[in-house]
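Running this now, will post back.
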Amino acid sequence: MTENATSQATLETPRLELNGPVPDFVAQTTHGPIKLSEWKRDKWVILFSHPADFTPVCTTEFMAFAKLSEELAARNVVLLGNSIDSVHSHIAWVRNIKENFDVDIDFPIIADLDMGVAKRFGMLHAASSSTAAVRAVFFIDPERKLRAMIYYPLNVGRNFDEIVRVVDALQTADEHGVACPADWRPGEPVIVPPPSTTEAAEQRVRDESLDVTDWYFATKRV
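Update: finished.
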């Protein structure tokens, strides 16, 4: 790859880092134009991409997102879809889902015809397709920082239990200053951050308010 090609690739697919700021954009959606940095400013945002309108796996996913929208709203989360289709295609697809499955798609969908959003967020993976976005999910907090991201291939639908679990884990970790262990679910013990000094480690093993296995491994319920 030439130096110019490398520079262009870097411009088109900027590096996204967890806990770093997300790229801002202005885009047309099925709910009108939005600017990410100003849209729903006090909310968490789940920005997700789908390969194309009027495709069967994407249809099942959109219905799953729609059925979760109230549950996510209770967690202060809003949904924002994206694909490289026109706003008219999106509108027709939303109406088709309502007609065929009686499911209302009540969240906006970005019309990303110029691939601007897809490129900024690294949704285009050349090894999969140069004209369709992979199934990406970006968890963005109210400060517009990227807190988690998950990618799925074109031929595998997303796990929606995991999407809700990630939201719960991130919000619990933020609220209580803890970490969440493997397969954690709300109501289960969380990890207390390990001490950083020998004195604190000695105090930790004697802390009866925690379930202490060893100085570096302690849990509690929140």
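Residues 1-12 have pLDDT under 50 and may be disordered. More later if anyone needs it.
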